[in-house]
Design brief:
With 164 residues, the chain is of the alpha+beta class. The protein folds into 2 domains: 76 residues, Roll (Ubiquitin-like (UB roll)), CATH 3.10.20; 62 residues, DNA polymerase, domain 1, CATH 1.10.150.120. Helices cover 27% and strands 15% of the residues. The chain has 5 helices and 5 strands. It has a 5-stranded mixed β-sheet, sandwiched between helices. A hairpin with a 2-residue loop joins strand 1 and strand 2. Helix 2 packs across helix 5. The chain is globular and about 50 Å long.
Protein backbone atom coordinates (compact mmCIF):
# COMPACT_ATOMS: atom_id res chain seq x y z
CA UNK A 1 0.00 0.00 0.00
CA UNK A 2 1.46 3.34 -1.06
CA UNK A 3 2.22 6.04 1.49
CA UNK A 4 2.14 9.80 0.99
CA UNK A 5 5.36 11.76 1.50
CA UNK A 6 6.19 15.44 1.32
CA UNK A 7 9.78 16.42 0.70
CA UNK A 8 11.56 19.60 -0.21
CA UNK A 9 14.00 18.89 -3.01
CA UNK A 10 16.23 21.71 -4.20
CA UNK A 11 13.92 24.23 -2.57
CA UNK A 12 10.73 22.87 -4.18
CA UNK A 13 8.08 21.05 -2.18
CA UNK A 14 7.00 17.71 -3.67
CA UNK A 15 4.17 15.46 -2.55
CA UNK A 16 3.88 11.90 -3.84
CA UNK A 17 2.56 8.44 -3.13
CA UNK A 18 5.39 5.91 -2.84
CA UNK A 19 5.77 2.22 -2.21
CA UNK A 20 7.08 1.56 1.31
CA UNK A 21 10.20 -0.18 -0.05
CA UNK A 22 11.11 2.53 -2.58
CA UNK A 23 14.57 3.95 -2.02
CA UNK A 24 15.28 7.65 -2.04
CA UNK A 25 17.49 7.32 -5.14
CA UNK A 26 14.61 5.73 -7.04
CA UNK A 27 12.21 8.43 -5.87
CA UNK A 28 14.59 11.20 -6.93
CA UNK A 29 15.30 9.66 -10.33
CA UNK A 30 11.97 8.05 -11.23
CA UNK A 31 9.39 10.31 -9.59
CA UNK A 32 11.17 13.65 -9.82
CA UNK A 33 13.19 13.03 -12.99
CA UNK A 34 16.41 14.31 -11.40
CA UNK A 35 18.92 11.99 -13.03
CA UNK A 36 22.04 13.72 -11.74
CA UNK A 37 21.78 11.45 -8.72
CA UNK A 38 23.29 8.26 -10.11
CA UNK A 39 22.33 4.72 -9.28
CA UNK A 40 25.51 2.70 -8.90
CA UNK A 41 26.11 -0.19 -6.56
CA UNK A 42 22.83 -0.06 -4.58
CA UNK A 43 24.90 -1.04 -1.53
CA UNK A 44 26.17 2.33 -0.27
CA UNK A 45 29.73 1.62 -1.40
CA UNK A 46 30.26 3.87 -4.42
CA UNK A 47 28.79 7.27 -3.47
CA UNK A 48 27.23 7.82 -6.91
CA UNK A 49 23.81 8.31 -5.29
CA UNK A 50 25.04 10.91 -2.78
CA UNK A 51 22.62 13.68 -1.84
CA UNK A 52 22.54 16.13 1.05
CA UNK A 53 19.65 15.31 3.40
CA UNK A 54 19.00 17.86 6.13
CA UNK A 55 22.56 19.15 5.70
CA UNK A 56 24.24 15.75 5.86
CA UNK A 57 25.77 13.65 3.09
CA UNK A 58 23.86 10.39 2.62
CA UNK A 59 23.82 7.50 0.19
CA UNK A 60 20.29 7.74 -1.17
CA UNK A 61 20.32 4.05 -2.13
CA UNK A 62 20.36 3.16 1.58
CA UNK A 63 17.48 5.38 2.62
CA UNK A 64 13.83 4.70 2.02
CA UNK A 65 11.86 7.51 0.42
CA UNK A 66 9.51 7.32 3.43
CA UNK A 67 12.43 8.26 5.69
CA UNK A 68 12.80 11.54 3.81
CA UNK A 69 9.23 12.61 4.57
CA UNK A 70 9.12 16.25 5.69
CA UNK A 71 12.85 16.70 5.11
CA UNK A 72 15.04 18.88 2.88
CA UNK A 73 17.15 17.31 0.13
CA UNK A 74 19.77 18.88 -2.09
CA UNK A 75 20.74 17.13 -5.33
CA UNK A 76 23.33 18.20 -7.88
CA UNK A 77 20.57 19.87 -9.92
CA UNK A 78 19.87 22.23 -7.01
CA UNK A 79 23.46 23.24 -6.41
CA UNK A 80 23.74 25.97 -9.03
CA UNK A 81 22.45 29.29 -7.79
CA UNK A 82 21.36 32.57 -9.24
CA UNK A 83 24.96 33.30 -10.26
CA UNK A 84 25.12 30.16 -12.42
CA UNK A 85 27.12 27.09 -11.64
CA UNK A 86 28.43 26.57 -8.13
CA UNK A 87 32.17 27.27 -7.60
CA UNK A 88 32.72 23.53 -7.04
CA UNK A 89 31.08 22.68 -10.36
CA UNK A 90 33.23 25.29 -12.10
CA UNK A 91 36.40 24.04 -10.38
CA UNK A 92 35.73 20.41 -11.33
CA UNK A 93 35.57 21.46 -14.98
CA UNK A 94 38.55 23.84 -14.80
CA UNK A 95 40.79 21.31 -13.04
CA UNK A 96 39.86 18.35 -15.22
CA UNK A 97 38.24 16.51 -12.32
CA UNK A 98 35.52 15.20 -14.61
CA UNK A 99 36.15 12.20 -16.81
CA UNK A 100 33.13 10.00 -17.47
CA UNK A 101 31.11 12.10 -14.99
CA UNK A 102 29.32 9.24 -13.26
CA UNK A 103 30.84 9.94 -9.84
CA UNK A 104 30.96 13.72 -10.24
CA UNK A 105 27.59 14.68 -8.68
CA UNK A 106 28.33 12.65 -5.55
CA UNK A 107 31.88 14.00 -5.32
CA UNK A 108 30.70 17.60 -5.66
CA UNK A 109 27.92 17.24 -3.09
CA UNK A 110 30.31 15.53 -0.67
CA UNK A 111 32.79 18.38 -1.17
CA UNK A 112 30.06 20.97 -0.63
CA UNK A 113 29.04 19.37 2.66
CA UNK A 114 32.69 19.29 3.74
CA UNK A 115 33.26 22.94 2.84
CA UNK A 116 30.04 23.96 4.59
CA UNK A 117 31.44 22.44 7.79
CA UNK A 118 35.09 23.34 7.21
CA UNK A 119 35.76 26.07 4.62
CA UNK A 120 39.53 25.45 4.66
CA UNK A 121 40.14 21.70 5.03
CA UNK A 122 43.53 20.08 4.78
CA UNK A 123 44.23 17.66 1.96
CA UNK A 124 43.90 14.81 4.44
CA UNK A 125 40.45 16.05 5.52
CA UNK A 126 39.38 16.24 1.87
CA UNK A 127 40.57 12.68 1.28
CA UNK A 128 38.75 11.48 4.39
CA UNK A 129 35.50 13.17 3.30
CA UNK A 130 35.74 11.58 -0.16
CA UNK A 131 36.43 8.09 1.20
CA UNK A 132 32.89 6.94 0.42
CA UNK A 133 32.99 8.09 -3.21
CA UNK A 134 34.58 5.88 -5.84
CA UNK A 135 36.04 7.14 -9.11
CA UNK A 136 37.46 4.78 -11.70
CA UNK A 137 38.69 7.48 -14.12
CA UNK A 138 40.56 10.35 -12.47
CA UNK A 139 42.78 8.87 -9.78
CA UNK A 140 41.43 11.55 -7.38
CA UNK A 141 44.35 13.99 -7.75
CA UNK A 142 42.38 16.39 -9.97
CA UNK A 143 39.31 16.06 -7.74
CA UNK A 144 41.34 17.03 -4.67
CA UNK A 145 42.94 19.95 -6.56
CA UNK A 146 39.50 21.20 -7.61
CA UNK A 147 38.18 21.09 -4.06
CA UNK A 148 41.29 22.80 -2.70
CA UNK A 149 40.75 25.58 -5.24
CA UNK A 150 37.38 26.37 -3.64
CA UNK A 151 38.58 26.67 -0.05
CA UNK A 152 38.34 29.86 2.02
CA UNK A 153 41.99 30.64 1.36
CA UNK A 154 41.58 30.19 -2.38
CA UNK A 155 38.45 32.38 -2.31
CA UNK A 156 40.37 35.28 -0.81
CA UNK A 157 39.04 34.80 2.71
CA UNK A 158 35.32 34.67 1.92
CA UNK A 159 33.48 32.49 4.41
CA UNK A 160 31.46 30.22 2.16
CA UNK A 161 32.09 28.37 -1.10
CA UNK A 162 28.60 29.62 -2.09
CA UNK A 163 29.73 33.26 -2.08
CA UNK A 164 29.75 34.79 -5.59
Amino acid sequence: MKKRIRVEVNGILHEALVEPRMTLVDFIRDHLGLTGTKKGCDLGNCGACTVILEGKVVNSCLILALEADRKRILTIEGLAGEHGEHPLQRAFVEYGAIQCGFCTPGMILTAKALLDQNPDPTEEQIKEALAGNLCRCTGYAKIIEAIKAVTTRALGGRKSPDDP
